[in-house]
């Protein structure tokens, strides 16, 4: 269980670091709408990741773990709310869709970085 906790912590920290770097770069390099897309996308996906993490921790922490139906219902509610927010942001042209896509990719990038780091540790451990 130690590796899972370490990965979650690493991904959470990396999410916020990547989100900050990409948001600042977006404001310095791109148009305001593009930068807003990056920020809103990053916030949506990072908050969803944190909420999913909290839901799963609560489900597995209690002696009588929560029903899988409750966990799935919470997941789908978050999914629908996120989809609605993304729809409104794009339909009302508050953000640039490409910037939003980049922002929504923050968690995926964090997970990829964590995976690369773990694979590197695994191969370095075998080499020693």
Short descriptors:
0% strand; mainly alpha; 5 helices; 128 residues; single chain
Order of helices and strands: HHHHH
Largest sheet features: none
Return residue spans where pLDDT drops below 50 for at least 5 consecutive residues. Answer: none
Total helical segments: 5
Q: Roughly how many Å apart are the termini?
A: 24 Å
Which percent bin holds the helix content? over 70%
What count of structural domains?
1
Query: Tally of extended strands?
Result: 0
| Structure class | mainly alpha
Oligomer: single chain
Q: Which value, in Å, is the CA radius of gyration? A: 17 Å
Mean pLDDT: 88
Overview of this protein structure:
The chain has five helices and no strands. The chain is mainly α and 128 residues long. The chain has one domain (2-127). Helix 1 (2-29) runs antiparallel to helix 2 (32-61) and helix 2 (32-61) packs antiparallel against helix 3. The radius of gyration is 17 Å and the shape is flat. 19% of the residues are buried.
Question: Secondary structure elements and their pairing?
Answer:
Layout: H1 2-29, H2 32-61, H3 68-91, H4 97-104, H5 106-127
Helix pairs in contact: 1-2, 1-5, 2-3, 2-4
């Amino acid at each position: 269980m130690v590796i899972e906790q370490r990965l979650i912590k690493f991904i959470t920290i990396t999410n916020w670091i990547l989100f900050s770097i990409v948001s600042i770069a977006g404001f310095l390099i791109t148009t305001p709408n593009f930068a807003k897309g990056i920020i809103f996308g990053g916030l949506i996906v990072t908050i969803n990741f944190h909420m999913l993490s909290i839901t799963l921790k609560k489900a597995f922490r209690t002696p009588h773990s929560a029903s899988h139906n409750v966990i799935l219902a919470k997941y789908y509610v978050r999914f629908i709310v996120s989809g609605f927010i993304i729809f409104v942001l794009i339909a009302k042209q508050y953000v640039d869709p490409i910037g939003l896509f980049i922002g929504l990719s923050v968690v995926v990038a964090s997970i990829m970085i964590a995976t690369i780091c773990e694979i590197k540790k695994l191969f370095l451990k075998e080499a020693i």
